[in-house]
Amino acid sequence: MTFNNVKKMMKQPKLSDVIQEQLETMILEGSLRPGEKLLPERELAKQFDVSRPSLREAIQKLEAKKLVVRKQGGGTFVSNTILGGLSDPLFELMSQSNESQFDLLEFRHGIEGMAAYYAAMRGTKADFEEIQRKHDNIGNIQLDNDFRLEAQAVYDFYLAICAASHNTIILHLARSMAEVLVDNIEQNLTAMAKRPDIFSQITDYRKNLLEAIVSGKPQRAWGASHSHLAFIEEVLLKMTQENSRVERSMRRMQRK
């Protein structure tokens, strides 16, 4: 055996390392989500076309890295704490602060605008079908007249856009902030319910965003995202100013 052959053999990665890397990629890309249960060992070994000992070793390495957790008699799950670093008590304070609601809208301008841009550029047919499905579900949920459910449906629509961007940072950042973003959307919906005339306009803005993405027009998608959020921000600012004027008037009346 030549030295070059020995060198090549030495460079070959262990099978368990290859499996580990593939599973890590699936977690990173979002194919395997936090809390999701992995297939049983026998099925996973068949899927990867490897022996069960090699698969078991790969799972053990993922467990050591705290990417998965094994429950006695219950199977193996993707860890729920993967995104725990962003599950901060500060987010709870944000959700309760009126000023932070506008900060979150500004944040959404950036994250949702980028997601829409890259979704239009990189999205597949399957991605667009999922975005369409999530968009249509918003209309179905609105019939229930439940702002929390509607907020979750709107978030799911934007999460589908993030997934279609094929940018793992955008996707996982959006997932990590799920609760605070849903809270923000719910509060906006609740506030704007006082102005039923604008709901049809919001629906039109969202539809424009959808059409720009599925037609594969990145710049138009970016613009549609910004126009939508700018409209919401403008409406909320006007409502805040109106509320302030009413409160001042009430205070003046009480002094008389």
Describe the structure.
- The protein has 256 residues and is mainly alpha-helical.
- It has 12 helices and 2 strands; from the N terminus they run ααααββαααααααα.
- The chain has helices at residues 3-11, 15-29, 41-48, 52-64, 89-96, 98-122, 125-142, 147-164, 168-176, 178-192, 199-214, 218-255, and strands at 68-71, 75-78.
- The protein has a two-stranded antiparallel sheet with strand order 1-2.
- Strand 1 and strand 2 form a beta hairpin.
Secondary structure layout plus pairing:
Blueprint: H1 3-11, H2 15-29, H3 41-48, H4 52-64, E1 68-71, E2 75-78, H5 89-96, H6 98-122, H7 125-142, H8 147-164, H9 168-176, H10 178-192, H11 199-214, H12 218-255
Antiparallel strand pairs: 1-2
Helix pairs in contact: 2-4, 3-4, 6-8, 6-11, 6-12, 7-8, 7-11, 8-10, 11-12
